[in-house]
Design goal:
The chain is an alpha+beta fold. The chain contains two helices and six strands; from the N terminus they run ββαββββα.
């Protein structure tokens, strides 16, 4: 089963990003182990926005704004540059706003990709 988790990532140097981690899990999987496995090869974050705190409120700027050459995903290869990863509440206004944007994009792309099958990755055994 796939799950989407919204996070705020604070980096060394004061940069702040908000995005989603999409991961597959089985019943009984430990979330921290899933994140550790994902971070080993680089932490992949989708739907990324830069964030700034102004007067206690978060302001979001999309990375892929307008004519930007960047896609709205990023991979943090060196996790030593991460200060904190904070999990956002699913019912927060920021998450609802970003989820709304994603569902609009998904509705558009579903029409063009009806013949594509999604495959579930094979579960790795812990040694």
């Amino acid at each position: 089963m796939m799950n989407r988790l919204w996070v705020r990532v604070d980096m060394v140097g004061g940069e702040c990003y908000i995005g989603s981690l999409d991961y597959y899990y089985e019943e009984g999987d430990d979330l921290m182990m899933v994140l550790e496995d994902q971070a080993y090869l680089g932490l992949k974050i989708d739907n990324v926005h830069k964030c700034k705190e102004v007067e206690g409120k978060l302001l979001l700027e999309p990375i892929d704004a307008g004519s930007s050459i960047y896609k709205s995903s990023m991979i943090i290869m060196n996790t030593d540059n991460i200060i904190t990863i904070k999990f956002l509440k699913e019912d927060s206004s920021i998450v609802k706003e970003l989820e709304g944007k994603i569902t609009k994009k998904e509705k558009r792309s579903v029409k063009a990709s009806k013949n594509i099958l999604q495959f579930k990755p094979v579960k790795r055994e812990n040694v």
